[in-house]
Amino acid sequence: xxxxxxxxxxxxxxxxxxxxxxxxxxxxxxxxxxxxxxxxxxxxxxxxxxxxxxxxxxxxxxxxxxxxxxxxxxxxxxxxxxxxxxxxxxxxxxxxxxxxxxxxxxxxxxxxxxxxxxxxxxxxxxxxxxxxxxxxxxxxxxxxxxxxxxxxxxxxxxxxxxxxxxxxxxxxxxxxxxxxxxxxxxxxxxxxxxxxxxxxxxxxxxxxxxxxxxxxxxxxxxxxxxxxxxxxxxxxxxxxxxxxxxxxxxxxxxxxxxxxxxxxxxxxx
Length: 269
Ligand code: URA
Fold this sequence. Notes:
alpha/beta; five-stranded mixed β-barrel; 7 helices; 10 strands; 26% strand; binds uracil
C-alpha cells in the first residue's frame, strides 16, 4: 500500500524521496523560479510539473550537492505556513529556509538588499497556538551562519548589502504593518505608532511568515532560518514596483540556495 499523503501538501514519504531540506517561498509561482535557479547552478533539469500543487502549496523536488531538496511554497501568513512546516516535519524534513520578500523600516536598507532574520517579533497568531508568546522565534544558529556566509559570498557580486537582525512578522499586510492605504484608510489604535516603535527598537523589516516558521522549528527541535529580499522601504519609497519585486526576490533566492549548499556540505563533513 502507498504511504499516506499529508493532507494539504499532497506529498508522501515516497514522493519526496527522503528529502530532509526545504526552501520555503511564500508565493507558489516562486517554487518553479527557485527550481530553475537551482537547475542553472547545479546543472539539473526542472521537472515539467511540480511534485504536487494543491491550493497555495506548490512543491518541486531538486538536487543540491547530491541531497534531495524540496521547494515548497507556504502561501501568505502564519496559518498556511504552519500547515506547510508541520506537514513537512511529519514527512522527515529537518532544515527549513524561508525565501521571501520584505518591506524595510530602517532608512539605511535599500531595495535589492537582503535581510537575514536572527529572530522575529511574534505579531502573528499561528505561532501562539504552538508555543506561548514568551517563547522566542529565533533562527537556528547553523542556518543563520550558513545564510551569513552565503550572503558574504553572493551579495558583493550583486552590488547590494545584507543586514542581519530582528524582523517583525505580522498577520496582516495592511493594518498589522500600519498601512493607511487600505480599504479603511484607518489603522486601529493598537497599531498606530507601531512602525516607529519597531524602528526605535532596531527592528529591520516587516514580513508575514518568519515568526510562525521559527517558532515551530524551535518547538519541534528542527532547524529554521529566513532570508528576504527588500522590495520596498517604508521610510523612503513605499510603492512596490515589479522591478523591485523581481530584484529583491532574485537576491534572496541566490543567498538561500548557496546557504542550502553550505548546510548540506557541512552535514557531510
Ligand atoms: N511583505 C510584507 O509583508 N511587507 C512588505 O512591505 C513587503 C513584503
